[in-house]
Each structure stands twice: as structure tokens, then as C-alpha cells.
Amino acid sequence: MRNRLVSKKGWGTALVLIPAIFFLGGSLNAENNRSGTKHAPKNIIIMISDGCGYNHVDATSLYEYGMTGMQVYEDFPVQLAMSTYMYGGSYDPEVAWTDFDYVNHGKTDSAAAATAMSAGLKTRSGYIGMDASKNWIEHLVEVCEDLGMSTGVITSVQWSHATPAGFSAHNSSRSNYAEIAREMINESRLDVIMGCGHPFYNNDGIRSDTVINSEYTGGKGFWSELVNNKAGGDADGDGIADIWRVIQTREDFLELMTGETPKRVLGTARVAKTLQQDRSGDKKAAPYSVDFIETVPTLAEMTRGALNVLDNDPKGFFLMVEGGAVDWASHANQSGRMIEEEMDFNRSVEAVVTWIRKNSNWGETLVIVTGDHECGYLTGPGSGETSEGPVWNALVNKGMGEVPGMRWNSSDHTNSLIPFYAKGRGARLFKKEVLLNDPVRGETIDNTDIAVVIRRLLKADLESPQGIGLEDFAYVAGRWLMDDCGHTDGCDGADLDGSGTVDAGDLMFLKENWLSY
Predict the structure, then answer these.
(1) Distance between CA atoms of 326 and 50, rounded to whole angstroms?
(2) Which candidate, 24, 70, 71, 34, places its Cα nearest to that of 352?
(3) Which ranges constitute the DSSP H helices of 120-219?
(4) What single DSSP character describes residue 161?
(5) CB burial class (10 A; 0-12, 13-18, 19+) of residue 38?
(6) How many helices (H) and strands (E) does the chain have?
(7) What is the DSSP letter of 376?
(8) pLDDT (tens digit, 9 = 90+) per residue, 34-83?
(9) Contact between 21 and 486 (Cβ < 8 Å)
(10) Rounded (to 5) percent helix, strand, coil in the chain
(11) pLDDT tens digits, residue range 374-394?
């Protein structure tokens, strides 16, 4: 299904401008980019709030702003719903909204979900980078690395946990943490890995004289190899081992945000399971009422550091950012800590958008913001089965700084649809992948579409696209001449080159990518 940008009122002005654009750039070749990757995004950033559904986003916005729709990604031009079920599963929109219990069945886990998003295939629960028959399948990071791009994965939980592993490793069990960690360090070509899982620190960031748990960093003895600069395989193919630079303190992470950076960085924050979610104190308390651990970085600080490392590559980069502890708080039905974790994730998205505005543009960078599944079955109070049928009530807004009225209906994942947002180079391709129209959430894609679309962009797999047409020129030209975009960001997708305005540059962008989408 193709969703054109066309607007009738733009046709007339476009007829005047199109010949001028052709004159500026020469005759237009319909096959321009079919055999190459000029049309592909230079940088790809996938941001995953683990366990986050629609109400997680809204609950956080209500607490932070006193209203919904305020997050930076909620202004992205591509907004869809996304299904998350794993191999053998399905999602039926009609049943989902007539049976309150329906979404409690057929749910995925994070390993299968991450693999689906990274490799484009459904798989079984617990599988990492393997299909349902336990065959290795290619990750997006591996596709990017073959093209010479730098790659990284960062998370607010252990860096060998399901989601970062599901984008970079291959194992039949997500629980084989030590094996996964060693593969990520010695066999992958990743340039940045960041997260938790420090073997000597507990959940409050307090050091122990003995190892507390070493499995998340490769098992007994492997941490010593890491910190003594003895771990790391040949990432760039020159036959020489590329050793990891290990950073641990918050000061190390902050220093990484600016200035010169090492070639490969392994950031292991000095904390056990999560950056903040699993700290001591009343875990059911309101957000920020329990003191934070000051010795660990925020996810947003990790994100800025990772970007500073990866953007050194002139061929671009791929980065996956996970707000992993949104899921952990949701499992435990911790409303306050869920909001804390989602706010940190949102600050990470803002850090990415700021980086794009200062160092890149939307014409060369693709950003996706989504989740891997919903967790906790979060609704408004009074939801559930009633004598008159199922009811899904809205969250209750209690004002800025107050936890909204909400109800957790589960302590596990659900098969609910989750939100998907995209902006930048190639983002509108996702609209062509719509599978169904959910009666509540609207147009819906599947989580496998993330890898399918990005792979198509990166590998120039352009066998079926209908391409950019004259109506797209008409829409952009019309927005330019009517000047109803001003200097706003996005301009309903008409600001294609990311300049901040709709102008001749956007028409040139269309010309250069004629029939490439």
C-alpha cells in the first residue's frame, strides 16, 4: 500500500517548479540509485523502550507535562502501531477489542522480539539471532558492518541481556549470558557496547571485595581480560585485534560525550542489574522520591557518548539504544519507577534529535522509536471485564508532577500493539508495510518490518517500490510556495533534507532519489 505525500492544492505551483528543478540538476534518470546505496540513510538509530505500550508513554507525559502528546517523537511524521507476537503467533484486531484477556496470550519475549526487529524473521522465545530452527540469521548490525559502517548497542540493563544481544549475537538461549558476552566482545564487529552488569558492584552501586556475578561480562576471569586490555577480535578486517577500551565511572562516560574518543568502547557502569530501577528504597514510591545512584550515568549520557564515538566514521553508523528497565518496572508494577525509566529513555531520544540538528540532518539519518512488546497491561482505573463487556478506561490525569490514575492488569508481557514512530531518510517506507487497520490503534505494521525496510534501504533491494512521483514534487513544492511550514521541524514530512524549512533543497532531494524508494 502506497501513501503519497500528494496534496491537491500543491499541483499548480509544482507544475511551474518541476521544470526549474530539472534545469538545475540536469535530466532526471529514472534508474538513478537502483544499483547503489546512495539513497540509503547514512546513520540509523533504533530506540527501544522495552515493555513500553501506548499507556506507558501517556502516563509519563501526564506526570511530566500534565498532558499527553508532548514527547519529541510524538511529532515524528511516521506514526503507526506495531504487532510483536513471536513465531507461530498472531494478532487479531477484532478479537483483541472484544475480549479483555486476549492480549494475555500469544505474547513474545524480548529475545524473540529483538531478533525479529534486527533480522526480520519471527523466532521462538529465548532465541538470540537464530530462526525457529536454530539457524543463524543476519543482524542489521552485520549488514551495516559489511558496508563499512560503525555499530553500537547500549542499554540501561546488563549489556549482554536479551535486547542488545538480540541485535548483535547468536545463541539458542538468552540465558547463556557469559557465552553471549564473549561473542559480543571477541567475535562481533561492534564498536560501542554500554550497559550494566558490573561483576563487583551491587544494585546500589556499592563495591564488593569479591565478584558478585560475572556471567553478564563473560564469566569468571573474562573481566580481568577486559580491564587489562586483552579482549577484542579483529573488527575492521586488517588482521590485527581491535582491543576494547573499558570505561566504568560516570566521569568516564561524561568525558566520552565530547572530544576525542577511542576506536572501541565497552562501557560497564558500576552497578549490577540496572542503572536505577533496582536500587534500594521504596520501589512503589512516587517518581524521584528515592535518591538516585549518583555514580552511574544516565541512559541519555550513554547515548551522547555513543554518538560521539560512532560519528567519527565517514561511512555512517548504526546504533541501538534500549531503555531496558521500563520493562523491569512494569513487571513489578512499579508505577513511579516505570515513569522514571521512561523519562530517561525520552531524554535519550531528545539527545539523539539534538545531535542530528547539530551534527547531521534528517535527510541522512533515520530514527525509529518503539518498544519490543507491552508489559504490565497498563490501563486506566476500572478497566477489565464487566457485565456489559470489556472496558478499557483511559488514564486519569492528576496534573503535572502527580502519578496519573492507572491500573496494572498483569505482571507479564502482553500481545498488545505498541506505538512505532519514525523520522528521517527512508522513514516513509514503513507506511508501505501496513498489514492491517486496528479499530483503536489504526494502521499497523509488524516488528519484522523494521529489519525488512532497513535492509531494503541498505542493500538497494528495490524490486517492488513504486518510487517518488510527480505528486510528491507537487506536495513539497506547494508547501514551499505557500510557506505554511515556516521554520518548524518536520513540516509533515516535506522537509526532506532536514534543513528546518521546506525549500528548493527538498525538491533536489526528491530529484536525487527519483524512484529509489
Answers:
(1) 6
(2) 71
(3) 140-146, 162-166, 177-186
(4) S
(5) exposed
(6) 15, 17
(7) S
(8) 233 456 899 999 999 999 999 999 999 999 999 999 999 999 999 999 99
(9) no
(10) 35, 15, 50
(11) 999 999 999 999 999 999 999
**Residue with the larger pLDDT of the pair 31 and 48:** 48
Q: Which residue has the cell 572530544?
A: 259
The helix or strand, by DSSP H or E, that contains position 128, with its residue range, turns out to be none
Residue 112 neighbours by CB distance under 10 Å:
31
Cell of 271: 552497578
Contact 271, 293 (CB under 8 A): yes
Rounded CA Rg of the chain: 23
> How many Cβ atoms from other residues are within 10 Å of residue 9's Cβ?
11
Q: How many residues does the chain have?
A: 517
Looking at residue 225, what DSSP letter applies?
H
Report in angstroms the alpha-carbon separations of 262 from 255, 257, 258, 265: 11, 12, 12, 7
Q: What is the pLDDT of residue 498?
A: 54
- Region 344-356: mean pLDDT is 98
The CA-atom distances, in angstroms, between 423 and each of 143, 301, 352, 420, 460 are: 21, 22, 12, 11, 19
Question: Cα separation of 329 and 127, whole Å?
Answer: 23
Q: Which residue's C-alpha cell is 537464530?
A: 130
Collect all residues with Cβ–Cβ distance below 8 Å to 514 and sequence separation of at least 6: 28, 29, 30, 32, 33, 467, 468
- Tell me how far apart the 2 most distant CA atoms of the chain are, in Å: 75
Residue-wise pLDDT for 422-461, tens only, equals 999 989 899 989 999 999 999 999 999 999 999 988 875 3
Task: Give the separation between CA 416 and CA 441, rounded to whole angstroms.
Answer: 10
> Residue 364: phi, psi to the nearest 5?
-125, -5
Average pLDDT, the chain: 88
Residue bearing cell 500543491:
10
Q: DSSP secondary structure string, 296-362?
A: S--HHHHHHHHHHHHTT-TT-EEEEEEETHHHHHHHTT-HHHHHHHHHHHHHHHHHHHHHHHHH--T
Query: Whole-angstrom distance between the N-terminal and C-terminal Cα of the chain?
Result: 13
Grid cell, residue 354, equals 539534538
Residue 354 CB contacts under 8 Å (≥ 6 apart), including other chains:
none
Q: Are 507 and 19 in contact (CB under 8 A)?
A: no
